[in-house]
Amino acid sequence: MGSMSQTLHRPTVGRRVLTLSCLDQVGIVHAVAGSLAERGANIVDSQQFSDTESGPVRFFMRLAVDVADPDEPVQALSEAFAPVAERFDMAYEVMDPSVRRRLLVLVSKLDHCLNDLLYRCRVGAVPATIAAVVSNHDDVRGLVEAAGIPFHHVPMRKQDKPAAEARMRAIGAQVGADTWVLARYMQILSPDLCGQLAGRAINIHHSFLPSFKGARPYQQAYARGVKLIGATAHYVTAELDEGPIIEQEVARVDHTMGPDTLVAVGRDLECLALARAVRWHVENRIVLNGHRTVVFR
Fold first, then answer.
1. Is the separation of the CB atoms in 149 and 122 below 8 Å?
2. Is residue 251 domain-shared with residue 270, that is, in the same domain?
3. Cα gap 126→9, rounded to integer Å
4. Are β-strands 245-252 and 151-153 bridged in parallel, bridged antiparallel, or unpaired?
5. Could you say which of 40, 65, 95 is where a domain stops?
6. Which of 107, 180, 285, 290 has the greatest number of beta carbons closer than 10 A?
7. Are the C-beta atoms of 149 and 103 separated by less than 8 Å?
8. What's the rounded Cα separation, in Å, for the pair 41 and 74?
9. Where does a domain end: 95, 126, 149?
10. What is the model's pLDDT at position 213?
């Protein structure tokens, strides 16, 4: 499997991450830096982007800062920054990277993405905690319970879908999950649930879409002689597999590779794209920009 292609960053005590977006205008950076300086916060990393192609120019920014008092609650910095945010009509968020996000992972029968996330979360390559795993089948129970993680079998029959989704929501609330990860979960979430999870549920699928829909996409691709395969990680929306794209990974293939080889390559790509997307999400490196994303890597 390929590398994450990034150096692991160990959170520093007293570190905070601020992300923001607003209409671009003069004075934003000066105001942001000034507000942080007044609080004794030292900027250790700063990234910004102005989107000039999507109508009114929008400004996006991510800053990592070390605060003067490591024991100060995150809310204190957020409240102190509020006047600047109000002045520029910003959407913003402050988070503590030392506090791990909690994931509710949904999976069906294929376990490659789940297994990869279990390992990456355990070693810190994805700085998050898998709080529980939900599956509409019982196949991955042994893998999950061997890792010491709660497993919940929630069948998803058409006639029982509202009750099943209500149970999943209850499980997520019980374990304090703030992010849902669909790690090859082969069920369609209802529009209502997708709306509740807007911006905090990530899905993975092959990148052939809209071609080769339905079952056995890699076999369909082989029959058509494709030369490039890939995987797409995106936020979940009510529009099936059309949410804002976070990450994509691709690999070249050729005539010597049979369907089984394409499947194996595709699974590696799915693991890598999903791991990157989840990592960037839990590190607050992603800012939504309409139907697109700004990803500060």
1. no
2. yes
3. 10
4. unpaired
5. 95
6. 107
7. no
8. 12
9. 95
10. 76
Catalytic residues: 241
Task: Please state which of the ranges 1-10, 235-244, 267-276 shows the lowest mean pLDDT.
Answer: 1-10
The pair of structure tokens assigned to 50 is 């102005």
| 232 and 245 Cβ atoms separated by less than 8 Å | yes
For residue 125, the SS3 value is coil
Residue 17 pLDDT grade (very low, low, confident, very high; cuts 50, 70, 90): very high
Spatial separation of the C-alpha atoms in residues 98 and 10, rounded to whole Å: 8
> Has residue 138 been placed in a domain?
yes
Rounded distance between C-alpha atoms, residue 225 and residue 62, angstroms: 42
Burial 185-198 (b: 16+ CB within 10 A, else e): beeebeeebbeebe
Mean pLDDT of the chain: 93
| N residues, the chain | 297
Same domain, 155 and 32: no
The radius of gyration of the chain's CA atoms, rounded to the nearest angstrom, is 21
Count of helices and strands (H, E) across the chain: 8, 13
Instruction: Answer yes or no: pTM beyond 0.90.
Output: yes
AA identity, residue 60: F
Placement of tokens 């807007």 in the chain: 198
| Cα dihedral 280, 282, 287, 288 sign | positive
The number of beta carbons lying within 10 Å of the beta carbon of residue 76 is 14
Whether 148 shows a pLDDT value over 90: the answer reads yes
**What is the domain range of residue 48?**
15-95
Under the banding of pLDDT at 50, 70 and 90, the label for residue 207 is confident
Give the separation between CA 287 and CA 281, rounded to whole angstroms.
Answer: 9
- Give the number of C-alpha atoms closer than 13 A to the C-alpha of residue 1, restricted to the C-beta side: 18
Q: What single-letter DSSP state applies at residue 199?
A: T
